[in-house]
Amino acid sequence: MSNHHFGEAKIKQIKRWSPVWIVPIITILIGSWIIYYHFSHQGPEVVLVTSNAEGIVPGKTAIKSRSVDIGMVESAKLSDDLQHVEIRARLNTGMEKMLHQDSVFWAVKPQIGREGVTGLGTLLSGSYIELQAGSKGEEPAQYNLLDSPPLASPDAKGIHINLNSEQAGQLNAGDPVLFRGFRVGSVELSRFDADERQMEYQLFIQAPYDRLVTSNVRFWKDSGIAVDMSASGMRVEMGSLTTLFTGGVSFDVPEGWSVGTKVPNDTHYHLFNDQHSISESLYTQHSDYLLFFNESIRGLQEGAPVEFRGIRLGTVAQVPFIIPNMLKKLNGDYRIPVLIKIEPERFSKKLGDDFNLQQRLSDGLQHGLRASLKTANLITGALYVDLDFNNDAGAYKGPTRFDHYNIIPTVNGGITQMQQKVMEILDKLEKLPLNPLLNEATGTLKESQKTLQQLQTTLDHVNKITSSPAMKTLPDDVQQTLRQLSQSLKGLQPGSPAYTKLQGNLQHLDQVLVELQPVLRTLNTKSNALVFEATPGKDPQPKKAKE
Fold it and tell me: Are 382 and 230 in contact (CB under 8 A)?
C-alpha cells in the first residue's frame, strides 16, 4: 500500500471592498449632516426669569415680535433656589440680532388696567411672549419676563427723571406726566427705598417735550380735587380731567423764575404734595428769630406765615421750639418758645433791595416793634405771627439774644387783649359798692312814693281853700296865686299824664333793681360770667317744716 502525500490548504483573504457597506455609510453621513445642519442653523436660546409661569406651556407658547412668530418656549422649571421660574426659549435663525442689553420680554395675556382692556386676542389663541428688540449693549445671560409691556420703547427719544417723596402711594406706573395740563410723559417705575426711607419714582418724558425739563422746574402731585384749610384761609384746587380719578404728576417753572438750563438724563428732583407747597422751597436764605409767648399757642402750626401789615416776611419754623438744656419753672410767667424764619427773598422786591433787615428790626424794637398772635381763620382757629408797632410799648430793654438766636419781644394780641380788657372792666364792676347803691335807690323810691302821697294831701287842702267862701275876701293877687298853685298841683294829681308817667318810671326802676340782683350775685361768684357762661346753680329746695 503506497502512501499518498496531500498538501495543506491555503486560505487567501479577498481584498475587494464589498458594496454591502455603502448603504449604512450613506445613512450615517446623511444623519450626521442632518444633525450638523440642525444645530448649525438653530436660532439662539434665551433664558427668561419670572415669578409665575401662568399661561406658559412648553412647545405651545410662542414668542412674537410685532405679531410675527420668531420662536417657541422649550421648557419651564423652577430655579435652584425655588424662588423663581426659569423659562428656556429658542428663537428662529437670524433673530440673534434682536437680543441686546436693553431688549425687553413680557407676557401678553388678558388684562384690565388704567388704559382699558388689553390682550383680548389671547382668550382663544392662548398667552404668548412679546419681544421688543433692543439696540444697545451685549446679550445678557438671562432676561426678566415682565407682566406688562414697558411704557417707553428702548429706542424712544426723551429723558428719564427720578423723583423722591416722603409719602408712599402717590404715583403708580402708567400715571400721566403733565405740563400745564398737557400730557408729555408717563410714570414708569415706583419703588420704596428702605435705606433712605422714601419713595422713588422714575418718569419718562418723550421728545420733543424733554426740553421743557430744566434746572428750575418743580414737580408736584396732581390729584383730582385738593382742599386745604390753613392759616391762609380755605383753598380748593381741581386738577385736569386726566388726573381726576387716577392722579398724576405735573411740573412747571415757578412764577417769576427763569427757565433754567437743560439737565442730563436721570436727574433727581423732589416731588411736592401740591403746587402751593412749592413756594416754600423757593426761599433758601433765612434768618432765625426766637419768640416767647405767655399765652396759648393753640392753632399756631409750622408753616404759618409771619407778616408785617399784610406783607409776608417769613414762616413759622417750629412750634414749640425745643431748646436743649433749657429749664423753666411752670408758673404764671411760663413762656412758650417759638422759632420763626425771616426770609429776605420774600420782600426784597416789595420793600427794596437795600432793605437792611437786621438794622430795621433793631431800630424797630426801640420804637415799639412787637410780635403777636393773630387769628387767620375763624373757622379752623389757625393763627399767624404778626409784627407791628405797639403804641403802649416803649423801647425794648430786655435780652436781645438767647443761645445763638436773636429775640423779638412779644405782646398779647387779638382775642387775648380783648379778654384782658373785659376782665379788667368786670373786676372794676365787681369792686363797685352795688349793694349800698341798690339799698339807697330802694329807699329813694319809697321816699318818692311818700312825697307823692303828701303832694296829694296838699292838693286837697288847696282845693278846699280855693272853693271856700273865705277865698273871696282875700286880695286878688293872693287869689290868683292860689288858683295857679291849684292848677299846677292838678297836673300832678292821680290820673294826670305827669303823675302816670312818673308812677310808671318808678315801677320800671323797681323792676330793674329786682332783676339786677341775681346778676350781681352771679358776678360776685364768677366775675367773667358776662363772657363765659356761668354754671347754673342748684334749684332751691324747700325746707322741712318744723315739727
Answer: yes
